[in-house]
Design brief:
The chain is of the alpha/beta class. The chain has helices at about 15-25, 40-50, 85-95, 100-120, 135-150, 170-190, 210-220, 240-245, 245-255, 260-265, and strands at about 1-10, 30-35, 55-60, 125, 200, 225-230, 270. α7 (about 210-220) links the parallel β5 (about 200) and β6 (about 225-230).
């Protein structure tokens, strides 16, 4: 049996991205999404999640925007303006031991509780910029998630062995780092009862998505359950480089392709969500 969870990251980051994700859930093959709780469109996205009763998880964010926790209680995660340090600087600070574990725990708990207050139980959790599999965060998560009854988590352990994929050396190095951390996380998390998919895809597709690559990925889908991470949406001219990138609309259109459901059915692939694990 082959099952596919198409999960759209960054729900709530801004209104155009939120709109595109909901469109892909209502008209396309997206069956799951993860919500950022500290972004400009978070409240609107949470309201629409409750109205539509759809499957949404928590996109734990430790690297972008402002924390939900008071600054003085998580200061090792922040710059002098009170914002998270950003993708690279946050990872570097974690590598160097400059981030205090109790600060990570406070902010993670605050984001989980915001989600419960506005959306209810998350289907699963994953991490913005994959920081949830950084070793310092990996060890913190099991007791936190157990306390809230959360049992499912993304493990971004991506296989890039298929020679038909053309991946830049820089992207390969990034995937290898995340895969290394994810492999260690899987061992720990599975020992504590946390569940995840058998396989993961999406990092190699980020920035390189198109209809041909998606069809190739579907054709090569392994046995078991695979999560495909995507980042669809309408471009936001006022957003950051990622939100302004035309790839957001390329991914949206790719996921709305009316031929995809038939293709999946012909290959015996079932669409599902994290609730089905």
């Amino acid at each position: 049996m082959r099952r596919l969870i198409v999960n759209a990251d960054d729900l709530g980051v801004n209104a155009p991205r939120t709109h595109g994700i909901f469109q892909c859930m209502e008209e396309g093959i997206v069956r799951s999404a993860t919500l950022l709780v500290n972004m400009p469109d978070s409240l609107n996205a949470a309201r629409r999640v409750k109205e539509r009763n759809i499957s949404v998880g928590l996109h734990i964010n430790l690297s972008e925007g402002s924390p939900l926790t008071p600054e003085q209680d998580v200061h090792s995660l922040l710059d002098t303006r009170g914002y998270f340090l950003g993708k690279e600087r946050t990872r570097q600070a974690c590598d160097e031991g400059a981030v205090e574990p109790e600060h990570l725990e406070r902010e993670i708990r605050a984001q989980i509780e915001w989600f419960f207050d506005h959306c209810g139980m998350p289907t699963h959790v994953d991490g913005h910029h994959h920081l949830h599999v950084h070793p310092i965060v990996t060890e913190l998560l099991p007791p936190i998630l157990e306390r809230y009854g959360i049992q499912r988590i993304r493990i971004p352990q991506e296989d890039t062995s298929d020679p038909r994929w053309e991946i830049s050396p820089e992207r390969l190095a990034w995937i290898a780092l995340i895969r290394k951390h994810a492999q260690a996380a899987r061992i720990l998390w599975e020992s504590t009862g946390l569940r995840s998919t058998d396989h993961f895809r999406g990092i190699a597709l980020t920035g390189e998505a198109n209809a041909r690559r998606l069809r190739h990925l579907i054709a090569a889908l392994p046995e078991g359950t695979t999560e495909l991470m995507v980042h669809p949406g309408a471009c936001d001219p006022l957003g950051d480089d990622f939100s302004r990138n035309p790839q957001r609309e390329t991914e949206r259109n790719m996921l709305l392709d009316p031929e995809l459901p038939g293709l999946l059915q012909s290959r015996g692939i079932e669409l599902c969500s994290y609730n089905d694990l």
